Amino acid sequence: MNVNTAMMHGFTTSLTKYIKDIIEQNQSNNDNNEDYYLFFVDFLKNLYETSSKEFKENDKYGRNSDLFLETQLWSLFYNLINTDESLVPELDRLLNIRTWLESMMEKPQRPAQSIFESKDMFFKYLFDLVISGQHDVAIKEALSAKNFNLAMILNGFKSIEISQDQVADGLWKNSIKIMSENVRLCPYERILYTYISSSSLTLLDDSLKDIVESFDWSVKLLFHVKAIIDEFVEIKSKDLGSYDIRSKFDNSLNDVFTPTITGSPLIKVINSILSNKLNSLLTEYQKELKDSLKGKKTSIFYGNEFLLRVMAQLCIISSTIDKDVLSKDVKDAFISNYINSVLLQAKENKEPEIINSLYAYVYYLEPENQVVTYTELLKYIDSTEDKRKQKQFAEALGFPFKSYLIKLSEDLFQDMKTKDLETIEIAKSQYMNDHITDEQKEIINCIDFLVVADYYEKAIDLLLSSIKLFLIKKSVGAFITLMDKVDLDKIITICKLNDKTQEIDMLQDFAKLKVCLVLIKEWNSDIKNLEDIPDITEFTSREQLLTVKLTECAMNCFNFIRNKNDNKVMYLIKCIYVPHLFIQIHKVLEFSSELLGKPSLAKDALDLAKIVTDKSKQYHYLFNSSHTLELYVEMVTKTYIKILDKE
Question: Which Gene3D superfamilies does its entry note (predicted)?
Answer without folding.
Answer: 1.10.3450.20, 1.20.190.50
